Amino acid sequence: MVVGAGSLRGRELRRLLDRRTATDERVVLYDEDLAVCTLTAFGGEPTVITAVDPDGFVGASVVFFAGSTALARRYAAGAQEAGAFVVDLSEGPGLAEAPPWIVGLDDVRQRPGKGGAVVRSPSSLAIAASGLVAACATFGLRLLVITALMPVSEFGQAGLEELEAQTRHLFNFQSVPQEVFGTQVAFNLNRVLPSGQPFSLVDLQQAVERDLRVYWGDQVPVRVQLLQAPVFHSAAFLAYCELERSVEAEKLAQALTTRGFLLRPAEEISPVQVSAREVDRPVVAPPEAVRGEPRAWWFWGVADNVLLVVRNAVAIAEKVLAR
């Protein structure tokens, strides 16, 4: 069952679920507002997205929440009470009470809140940052500082439409709409978005920090800074790390590959946000040594901010259903 089936993440989730070769699960598509009564297709058959029916949660094995965080807050408890396993991949900070689960780290970290019936598939940045921590921890991680450029699609379809509208209005010398971001995002970088919106960069940053703290504890020194970039899709990040001992670049690159990163060869163009679209893992350039600091390194990478979250959510559901 998918709640928020008409959102960006909901559409990607429908696509991935539809590609599963075999499933005995009946998939029901729910949403609210304008998405209700949308005609789509699933399993080769016409399907209509219907309004959320709390009674419909009864008998569901897994319920995905892929719409707004507010939508998940309204209905997640009811789905859990009906006996469903809840996977939250909401746009925005998500359910704070739901512990994150990154399936790709199951071999090195036990998922937080094991035994609970509600979990969250964290943001692409949290997934990438956790992968960096896991890779660097092999050599003793002393410090990891990440600056990320976030796309407007973190704010859903409304974010995409407002960036497009702002760009068009600026070219026509018109005032820009600001209903979603509260400020000009087009041709601009923003550190803090005005308050009064459903959520802000600060909320997203706090969610990433919370996920890292839950997964790795306070003993892992990770610092995160988010910037709002005027791009539609995919997050980009620049990370600086200090290790407890020196290591060869080849071994560090191998550790990144082991932890699920796609490493671009040095002779190729450095990863860019456009190239990350529809790539199911974070893409990084070869580690770059900091001159004069044998134990310090730079990492540059990009990640599809929708696909990574959705792919991880599907992997969670597959593990739950395989029990």
Could you walk me through the main structural features you see in this protein, from its secondary elements to its overall organization?
With 323 residues, the chain is of the alpha/beta class. The chain folds into two domains: 2-122 and 309-321, Rossmann fold (3-Layer(aba) Sandwich), CATH 3.40.50.720; 126-304, Dihydrodipicolinate Reductase, domain 2. It contains seven helices and 15 strands. The protein has helices at 8-18, 69-81, 124-137, 156-171, 201-216, 249-258, 307-321, and strands at 2-3, 29-31, 39-42, 45-48, 50-51, 62-65, 85-88, 118-120, 141-150, 222-228, 235-243, 262-263, 283-284, 288-290, 293-303. Strands 9, 10, 11, 12, 13, 14 and 15 form a seven-stranded mixed β-sheet that branches. It has a six-stranded parallel β-sheet with strand order 5-2-1-6-7-8, with helices on both faces. A hairpin with a 2-residue loop joins strand 14 and strand 15. Helix 1 crosses helix 7, helix 3 runs parallel beside helix 5 and helix 3 packs across helix 6. The two termini are 18 Å apart.
What would you say the CATH architecture of the largest domain is?
Answer: 2-Layer Sandwich
Could you spell the SSE succession in H and E letters?
EHEEEEEHEEHEHHEEHEEEEH
User: What is the alpha-carbon Rg in Å?
Assistant: 20 Å
How is the main sheet built?
A: 7 strands, mixed
CATH T-level topology of the largest domain: Dihydrodipicolinate Reductase, domain 2
Given helix and strand content, the structural type is: alpha/beta
Low-confidence stretches: none
Top-tier CATH class of the largest domain: Alpha Beta
Q: Please tally the helical runs, counting DSSP H or I stretches of 4 or more residues.
A: 7
Number of domains: 2
CATH homology-level superfamily of the largest domain: Dihydrodipicolinate Reductase, domain 2
What fraction strand?
Answer: 15-25%
Helix content: 25-40%
What do the pLDDT scores average to? 88
Gross morphology is globular
Distance between the termini: 18 Å
Number of strands: 15
